[in-house]
UniProtKB/TrEMBL annotation, chain A:
The keyword Zinc does not apply. The lineage of its organism: Bacteria, Bacillati, Bacillota, Bacilli, Bacillales. Belongs to the manganese catalase family. InterPro entries: Ferritin-like, Ferritin-like_SF, Mn_catalase, Mn_catalase_dom. Keywords: Capsid protein, Virion. It comes from the Bacteria. It comes from Cytobacillus purgationiresistens. This is Spore coat protein JC.
UniProtKB/TrEMBL annotation, chain B:
It comes from Cytobacillus purgationiresistens. Keywords: Capsid protein, Virion. This is Spore coat protein JA. It holds the Pfam family CotJA.
Amino acid sequence: MWVYEKKLQYPVRVSTCNPMLAKYLVEQYGGADGELSAALRYLNQRYTIPDKVIGLLTDIGTEEFAHLEMIATMVFKLTKDATPEQMKAAGLDAHYVNHDNALYYENAGGVPWTATYIQAKGDPIADLYEDIAAEEKARATYQWIINMSDDTDLNDSLRFLREREIIHSQRFREAVEILKGEKEKKKFF
Amino acid sequence: MSTPEKSYYPYYSPYDPCKPIKVKTYSTPPNLYLGFQPPNLPQFSPKEALRAGTLWKPLYDPYYSPYEKAKEGR
Ligand SMILES: [Fe+2]
């Protein structure tokens, strides 16, 4: 069960009307290493992983939905009043004819989200290594979006999201350490 | 403390069509070095932590684009 707080995890401010940025950001909305993939991947893996790290997957999977909501807010703000002409100029004409200005789970190239982006191998180490890789890929995606964006307010929020990927990767790495730990060398903090 | 960025010098040919990027860089954030987080690491204040995205100073690694760096003379 979840408890919803009606606020964003970090403020989202957008300083320019720039639907082109929305096109890039959508990669983190419905892309392979985006927030939707992350949330669904972690929450689904919880059922077949040792008890010790289930809570971590719940926490991070839940937080990914908070990130998804931030990305959605960014995309919405950048496109909500964009005219068909502006959508076309931003390369969103194909999106527009299918969705108007609605949000959709697709990547920056317009490819719809697919469950093949995520895996549940049932092997705890394999799954956690996928999660670590997913976090590093999301971190890299945020870097490339920041490089493409000259919106300083937006970049501030993107920097926050990138930092969270670093923390998530750190925690998944620790989860591997816990699961591979030899019993006699057990350490508690 | 680790450095958050590394660089390398890829080969380029005098016949390459685009102006060569002689130095390539990539991020190496602190999580790659920390291992299992030890106790009692320095913390941000709660307010600072909410802005930074982490409570832990050694795990803070803000990323700025080349554009932002040039603008602020970083
Ligand atoms: Fe994440």
